[in-house]
Every structure is written in C-alpha cells, then in structure tokens.
Write a structure and sequence with these properties.
By secondary structure, the protein is of the alpha/beta class. The protein is about 30% helix and about 25% strand. The chain contains eleven helices and 20 strands. The strands form four sheets. A twelve-stranded mixed β-sheet has the order 4-5-3-6-7-8-9-10-14-13-12-11, sandwiched between helices. A four-stranded mixed β-sheet has the order 19-18-17-20, with helices on one face. Strands 1-2 form a two-stranded antiparallel sheet. Helix 2 runs parallel beside helix 5, helix 6 crosses helix 7 and helix 7 packs across helix 9. The longest helix has 19 residues. About 0% of the residues have low confidence. Bound molecules: zinc ion. The site of zinc ion has 7 residues, from loops.
Length: about 425
C-alpha cells in the first residue's frame, strides 16, 4: 500500500533513533504507573529545584521549594505576553519542534518542544492509550496508527517507530466539508489497515455521516481514539458500530500532549507519570458550575524547553481520587461541557467544522479575537475585536466576510460585528445556537 504523496522528515527519523532507549524507559515508567500511583508533584518539585529555577527566566531568583503549592499559578495570557520568560535559556542551542494551539479557546499560541518531548508525544501517545486498555495490534494491522486531522491542505507523512512500543504511523489531513474527501481517506485506510485511528470529534462526525459501513468494516481498526474536544455520545456509538472497534477519548493540550485517556470502564484517567493535576475555582465566577467542578491546573516538566508549572488550562472539570473499578489508582477526570467544539450544520445538510477558520488570525493580523456563532441554519454572526490601535473599516469588513463566506456554501449569510470580549474560562471561539 502506498499512500499518495506520502513523505517523511529525515531529521525526525534520525533524532527519533537517538532517543530510542530513553523512550523505551519512559514507556516502562508509564506501565508501572498504571499499578502504582506515581507522585508527579514530587517530581515537579525536584525538577524545579534542580534545573527549572536556573533554566527558566520566569523563576530566576527563586529559592528551592518543598511543595508545588509554594509556586504561583501561570495563565495563558502571561505566556502570550512574554513566551521567552517561560522558555529555557538553552533553547536556542538545541533543535526545537514548534507546536501551535488550535485556538478554539483563545488566540493561537506557539509552543516549543524539546526534541525528546516531541518524539515522546509523537511515538508514545497512542501506545500509552492502548496499553491502558490492554490492546495490542492484530497481525493483520499493517501500520500502527493513522492520524486524521481536520486540515484539508495537510500533506500526508509517515513516521517510523524506534521505541518498540508502537509502530509505523501515518498522519493525513482531510476536508471535513467534503464527504468525498472523507470517504477517500477511509478507502486508503482500508488498504493501510491501521491498528488505531486517532482523530478529533469533527472528523469522526464527518466519518459517521459519510462513510458506508461496508467500507468502514474493511479498515479493520481495533481502536479509535478521539482527542481535542468532547465526543458526543451518538457519534461515539455510530463510530464504534461502523468500525466494530473500541472508541475512547483522550484529553490533551498542545502545551502538554495527551495527559489522560479512557480505561475499559470508560473513565478518563490521568497519566500520573506525565503530569500533576489540581482543580481550582475558575478565574471568573461561573454560576453554572457544580461545587465539585473547577478549572484544571496542570503541571508537567517533561518538556525541558517549556515546562509548565501550575498552568491554568481554561478547561473545566472535576477530578475523583477514589479507585476506579478498572483497578488503576490514578485520578479520574470528568470534563465539563466547556470544551465541546460544535459543528455547524449548513442548509444543504453538510456538517461544517469551524476549525476550518483557524487561519483567520494569520490572514488578518489586525484581529485580536473573534467569535463565530451560528444563529440560524443559514446565518453566522462573527464578532470581531481588533488589536489596540486598529479599526474595522468597511474594506476590512468586506474582506473578512469574504473569508468566512468563502468557506461556507452559497446562501449562508455572514454578518461581521465589531465587539469587545469579556474573557473568562468558558470563552469559546465557535458556538452554535442550533441543536
Ligand atoms: Zn478506570
């Protein structure tokens, strides 16, 4: 099977090989953390005292600490204002991998990964999820994982596993607004026969809509992983019956990679060897929260270029510490609806993923923030806040309307309205007022 246009990155292949022993060790640590709870807060304290306060400018001048709670909470705006403060002094002298947030809850932000951390997230994320479930590839699987992203222009790449934990991975982009593009990817998947398909709810929704069951059955995947935002129950059920595979959710952020995934009892467990989690009241009082819920604050020092200590994620949820029926001692996360990424159903019935608007900041540098709300089946309202000193003049308004309307189908009305946002932990860039 040859995927059209498939290529690989030579630098990636070579550096992955350098880390194979260390990555293998990381996988063993993960396995043992499934039976013995790992105290990541102690590891973070040790890392802080050992290298973070020397390496990361933000903590320059800090004395050694004895508990994570001795350190301040960090929020996204601090990093956006001054990313260098949170980046290791040695960053310039080592190979870095740059990641961009999806920008579904705030303006897109770039993060630097160390080479080791990059390979850990690329090569071990799925093996960890499969390991928690006790799943291994069948002999009929030709590749280990197929990652399908909601990015129409992304070129397919292949990754070779050097750790022995996973296997060959292929990553492709798909145009979720085109049912044919979705069917084409699944037809190729039927030839590649991946053990696991990893994707997001918008792509899975598009697959559920447009892929016939005889085609899905040919893929032969054992595991479907959904990450990025909440997976609606009806899509989960439809995907499970289409592929006759186990469907699980994973929770991750661009800042940390995957930090939690579901067990066989359907509970979302934190990877205690990857992060420490706390829950605090959200930055802005949200009266709809129940008393157990709060904003998730995550600490992970695995990325030695940008370690994050007590980082406000903006995600709302609760964490349970009682032992789960599956036997795993790690805490269980219950995410609240705040992270649901909606899809827009257009008048023709096509399901449109608003993540297709994520290039808006790059195309219109004068925009500070925007929000897209589907108010009617054929109507989108776009609220726009400019950067300071900028203005929405008629020409900008026209170009912006063309940008949004051009991605939609004819007949959908786009209205641009200047706006000033009041940010809180529940800000969502894309909203639909329809069911
Ligand atoms: Zn469990």
């Amino acid at each position: 099977m040859i995927w059209p246009g498939l290529s690989y990155d030579v630098r990636e292949v070579l550096t992955a090989n350098l880390f194979k022993d260390a990555l293998h060790k990381r996988m063993l640590e993960f396995k043992s953390s499934l039976v013995t709870n790992f105290d990541y807060s102690q590891k973070a304290v040790d890392d802080f005292n050992e290298w973070i306060r020397a390496e990361i400018p933000r903590y320059g001048g800090y004395a050694a600490v004895s508990a994570i709670s001795d350190l301040p909470v960090t929020d996204k705006s601090q990093i956006r204002r001054n990313p260098k403060q949170f980046t290791a002094r040695t960053a310039e002298s080592q190979p870095l991998y740059l990641k961009q947030t999806t920008g579904s809850t705030g303006p897109p932000q770039q993060f630097s990964y160390s080479a080791f951390f990059h390979h850990e997230t690329v090569l071990l994320s799925i093996p960890k999820i499969a390991c928690r479930l006790g799943l291994r590839p069948l002999d009929s699987a030709q590749v280990y994982s197929l990652t399908i992203r909601d990015k129409p222009t992304e070129r397919p790449i292949i990754r070779f596993d050097s750790t022995g934990a996973g296997g060959t991975g292929i990553r492709v982009g798909v145009d979720t607004a085109s049912p044919q593009s979705v069917r084409d990817v699944i037809a190729l998947a039927a030839e590649a026969r991946p053990f696991c398909i990893s994707s997001g709810p918008t792509v899975l929704a598009a697959i559920a809509e447009s892929v016939p069951s005889d085609l899905a059955a040919k893929v032969g995947a054992s595991l479907i992983v959904s990450g990025g935002s909440h997976l609606a129950d009806e899509i989960r059920l439809r995907i499970a019956s289409l592929f006759k595979a186990k469907v699980v959710s994973a929770y991750g952020l661009s800042e940390f990679g995957v930090v939690a995934s579901e067990c066989n009892r359907g509970k979302l467990h934190f990877n205690t060897c990857d992060c420490h989690v706390e829950v605090t009241p959200p930055a802005v009082e949200a009266s709809s929260l129940n008393p157990m819920e709060g904003e998730l604050i995550i600490t992970s020092t695995k990325n030695r270029v940008m370690p994050f200590i007590r980082y406000r994620t903006g995600d709302i949820g609760s964490v349970a510490y009682e032992r789960c029926d599956c036997g795993e001692p790690s805490p269980v996360l219950r995410l609240s609806a705040g992270r649901t990424l909606p899809v827009f159903r257009l008048p023709s019935g096509v399901v449109f993923s608003p993540t297709q608007f994520s290039d808006t900041f790059a195309k219109f540098p004068w925009i500070g923030e925007f929000q897209v709300i589907q108010t009617e089946r054929d109507k989108l309202e776009v609220l726009v806040e400019t950067k300071p000193e900028e203005d929405v003049d008629p020409e900008r308004k026209l170009n912006l309307r063309r940008h949004f309307a051009g991605r939609l189908e004819p007949g959908v009305n786009v209205e641009i309205t200047p706006h000033r946002f009041l940010f809180d932990a529940k800000f969502q860039r894309y909203k639909s007022l329809l069911n």
